[in-house]
UniProtKB/TrEMBL annotation:
Gene3D superfamilies: Phosphoglycerate mutase-like. It comes from Magnusiomyces paraingens. It comes from the Eukaryota. PANTHER family: ACID PHOSPHATASE, PUTATIVE (AFU_ORTHOLOGUE AFUA_3G14570)-RELATED, ACID PHOSPHATASE-RELATED. Signal peptide: none annotated. InterPro entries: His_Pase_clade-2, His_PPase_superfam, Histidine_acid_phosphatase. One of its GO terms (molecular function) is phosphatase activity. Belongs to the histidine acid phosphatase family. This is Acid phosphatase.
Length: 333
């Protein structure tokens, strides 16, 4: 895509517009990566494990995307990687108001918790310590230091610099200087700290993560239905966002969280004991490794008896999600 930009806008954002991408849009390399990932998934779950069928079957396999077009772009090429001959497929999507894959559904309690987290002394001290870094970035990019969206955390700078890093593209420059690799790496470290603090380290993190993890309760329901033989689907693939994954990891109490990059994945695998069909176990993988957790009675979500997972969900969300409703309604103190 080649953008045509009027001169006033060009002069305002010229230091950031060294790109032919339009938000929201996956880059060519991102699409190639997604297709390769689809091929790899098929090689594991069909060729190695014979878990999914050779031919796509909607009674056994389900794909779902969020309302953000980026996830549909990824789904298209990922499915092509898994089933290259497939021409007709139904991909599920929830209404944008309640889309749990986007983690932005209405929840006043979550919004208030986020404000409380950003009002923590540790968070305010963090932003104060990084004033000089903000100043370096603003001076080069031309971003207004009074623009709150860019200065309540490093999210925007992280996004803009990380895609350049991943694609080996130059960082933004002005007439005098460019953002150096050292400054970019500092932004990445800061972004990781911020995500870790928001979703795991603040004393409000677990409440906030749970409030933004309604999708985890849906996963619990799907597993429960599968065990009760109420659902024929055996492979569900959901394509979401970094904040969705961060919320899930926070709700599962990951020991240390870094900003989830493109292609990050959480896999929930349900196992049944061969000689005891009523005994089930759950393994949760994050980027290919068993998820390490700070929960004292678990340590790792690796072949955990399913009753322990169910008990944790009931304790965290309620048996019918009522605790999540309490949090969203501000009843959490």
């Amino acid at each position: 895509m080649q953008n045509e930009i009027s001169e006033p806008l060009l002069s305002l954002y010229k230091n950031f517009l060294n790109t032919t991408c339009q938000l929201p849009q996956i880059t060519d390399e991102g699409l190639k990566n997604s297709q390769t990932h689809g091929k790899d998934l098929f090689s594991v779950y069909h060729e190695l494990l014979n878990f999914i069928p050779k031919e796509y079957d909607s009674n056994l396999i389900s794909f779902r995307v969020s309302t953000n077009p980026i996830t549909s772009q990824v789904a298209g090429v990922l499915i092509k990687g898994m089933y290259p001959g497939l021409r007709d497929i139904s991909v599920k999507m929830q209404h944008d108001v309640i889309d749990t894959l986007n983690s932005n559904y209405p929840c006043g309690g979550a919004d208030n918790l986020r404000k409380e987290i950003e009002n923590d002394e540790a968070w305010k001290n963090h932003l104060n310590e990084k004033k000089e870094l903000f100043q370096k970035l603003d001076n080069i990019t031309g971003i207004d230091p009074l623009n709150k969206e860019w200065h309540t955390w490093f999210d925007h700078y992280f996004d803009n610099l990380s895609f350049r890093f991943c694609h080996d593209l130059p960082y933004p420059c002005n007439k005098e200087a460019c953002i150096s690799s050292e400054v970019a790496l500092e932004v990445f470290d800061v972004g990781n700290w911020e995500y870790n603090y928001i979703y795991t380290k603040s004393n409000k993190s677990i409440l906030y993560s749970v409030a933004r993890s309604l999708f985890l309760f849906e996963v619990f329901q799907n597993i429960q239905n599968k065990i009760m033989k109420l659902d024929s689907i055996k492979y569900r693939h959901n394509i979401a966002h970094d904040n969705t994954i961060a919320s899930l990891l926070g709700a599962l109490q990951i020991t240390n969280l870094k900003w989830p990059g493109l292609g990050s994945e959480i896999v929930f695998e349900l196992y049944r004991k061969e000689n005891n069909p009523d005994m089930f176990f759950l393994r949760i993988l994050y980027n290919g490794e068993p998820l390490q957790t700070s929960l004292k009675n678990i340590n790792s979500w690796d072949m955990v008896p399913i009753d322990i997972f169910f008990q944790y969900i009931h304790t965290t969300f309620g048996t019918k999600g009522e605790i999540l409703n309490y949090i969203c309604n501000g009843i959490y103190h």
